[in-house]
Amino acid sequence: MRSSLAVVACACLLVSGCGGAPSPLPAAPSPAPAVTSPSPTVSAGLVERLRRGGLVLYLRHTATETTQDAPTPDLSDPATQRNLSAEGRAQAREIGQAVRRLRIPIGEVLASPYRRTVETAELAFGRAQVTRELLNEAYPGTDDDQLAAGLRRLLTGRPRPGVNTVLVSHGFNLAGATGLSSAEGDTFVFAPGGEEPVARIGVHDWRSVNDLGLRPRACKSVHMNHEEVCDSLGRSSPGSS
Q: Hey, which bits of 95-153 come out as E strands?
């Protein structure tokens, strides 16, 4: 009997590690680091480039309420969606004010059918052309690969001469197409044919444009290799309006 108990005791000790305390579980693998976006920058050079047109601006909708979309939101009913907050509406207006103040020419303004993206576009640029090509990847039944491929085509497309195209959509879409993470109100600037953005402008960076002291100068024709170029933006001088 004792020998049998001894055998059982030894077996129990072997199973438990013979130390009384259970062995620690292996550490869970660390999650993959998120792909971050380029450093925010609003400079005279970037503004000048935007004023020449020919770029694509991807704007993630501005700040939203703390609610969530319904499991299957009705795209015609904002009550089933997460909508812009008062702060988000103010942010969209500020973006539009900065764009107009700097005389950045805007052509097409395309937006996801969600109310928060349409409202961002309307408050910032005064209009929105709704397209399902920018539909939120989280919407039930969407083909994420198809949406990502379509967005990449839009990002690398060539706007009409002298203007910039604006795409107002969601964070999921940008991540799916480019791997970039974004915050609400971020603007990513893409050049035709380029797969990487040339700049990211955070929503608060638009606010800081006024602090740059940039004064728009009128463009003049300078025939250089048969191209028309604009003077650089200058600093405001004392007493200028």
A: 106-111, 129-130
Q: How far apart are alpha carbons 178 and 197 in whole angstroms?
A: 9
Q: Is 130 helix (H, G, I), strand (E, B) or coil?
A: strand
Which are the contacts of 209, defined by CB distance < 8 A and separation ≥ 6? 42, 47, 98, 101, 102
Contact indicator for 178, 66 with CB cutoff of 8 Å: no
d(CA 172, CA 58): 13
Tell me the two tokens of residue 128.
């929105």
Q: DSSP assignment, residue 31? A: P
- pTM of structure: 0.73
More confident residue, 152 or 29: 152
Q: Which of 68, 119, 49 is nearest to 91 (CA)?
A: 119
The sign one gets for the Cα dihedral 81, 85, 86, 89 is negative
First to last CA, the chain: 103
- What is the distance between the alpha carbons of residues 96 and 91, in angstroms, rounded to a whole number? 9
pLDDT in tens, 148-196: 999 999 999 999 999 999 999 999 999 999 999 999 999 999 999 888 9
Contacts of 61 (CB under 8 A, 6+ apart): 84, 88, 112, 114, 116, 117, 119, 120, 168, 169, 170, 184, 185
Euclidean distance between CA atoms 192 and 194, whole angstroms: 6
Beta carbons within 10 angstroms of residue 90's beta carbon: 15
pLDDT tens-digit readout, 61-98: 999 999 999 999 999 999 999 999 999 999 999 999 99
